[in-house]
Design goal:
2 strands, mainly alpha, single chain, two-stranded antiparallel ribbon
């Protein structure tokens, strides 16, 4: 964990506000003139007191992503972006709706963070409404009314968000390897191979090596999630057992690679 993240978490704990204190400051904010020094100080104090909400929201977002993990260099940027989302929620908070700040703030934080990730880490740009619909559909939530009516478009967005990486480094016990090394190498004059075709090639190699179906799915899931423990949990396997299964499968597959 970088120094920036550690400093953020320390500040979050030291400046933390209780729900009652947050509500009191929000009520005071409603009486202040927007843009005045007292207004800005109150907004800053509310945001400082809810930094843990930003951190928890960012952690939840990163759990479902293979390319970024909590503690990566960009985590500090995500926390800062999430802070701006929290600030938006505080400035727009309406106490007459009888809704907690945390409920509204999570939506603003997620919107800001997902937009930042979408613009920098996704292979293809996905419009904000399509991106939100993809996350909702993936989690089993009802798709928002503002989402595109073309369900195929949303499914394509989900596919882009879960592009497999065959460059994930895996330890086989003796050295480091990647899934890309377990499939036949393309010739120099061959055009770029689509990801789905490469995945089929990997499945063929694992089948020839007589790798059981569960281990095959584990290896592909690991490529998608980027963490053995996350891949193991999604398949209901113990992380320690999953690591051994992958190492054994790699050694068997290497014998069938040309």
């Amino acid at each position: 964990m970088t120094n920036e993240i550690t400093a953020w978490m320390n500040a979050a704990g030291n400046r933390r506000l209780t729900p009652e204190q947050t509500e009191s400051l929000l009520d005071r904010l409603q009486l202040l003139e927007e843009g005045s020094p007292k207004y800005r100080r109150t907004v800053n104090r509310i945001c400082e007191g809810n930094l843990l909400l930003v951190a928890k929201t960012v952690q939840v977002i990163l759990r479902g992503r293979a390319s970024i993990h909590w503690g990566d260099p960009c985590t500090a940027d995500l926390l800062q972006v999430g802070y701006f989302g929290l600030e938006d929620a505080v400035r727009r908070f309406d106490s007459s709706r009888n809704c907690k700040l945390s409920t509204i703030a999570v939506q603003w934080i997620r919107q800001r963070v997902n937009r930042w990730i979408n613009s920098r880490h996704n292979a293809v740009y996905i419009p904000e409404n399509t991106l939100r619909a993809a996350f909702d559909m993936k989690s089993g939530k009802p798709v928002n009314k503002r989402a595109p009516r073309n369900i195929d478009l949303i499914k394509q967005a989900i596919a882009v968000l879960h592009l497999s990486s065959l460059d994930m480094t895996i330890s086989d016990g003796d050295s480091l390897t990647t899934l890309a090394e377990l499939i036949p190498a393309p010739s120099d004059d061959e055009k770029p191979t689509p990801m789905e075709t490469r995945l089929l090639s990997l499945y063929e190699v694992m089948t020839k090596a007589k790798i059981d179906k569960i281990t095959q799915e584990l290896m592909i899931t690991y490529a998608r999630k980027g963490r053995i423990d996350s891949a193991a949990r999604s398949l209901g396997l113990p992380p320690g057992c999953a690591g051994k299964m992958i190492k054994s499968a790699i050694k068997k597959c290497r014998k069938h690679v040309r």
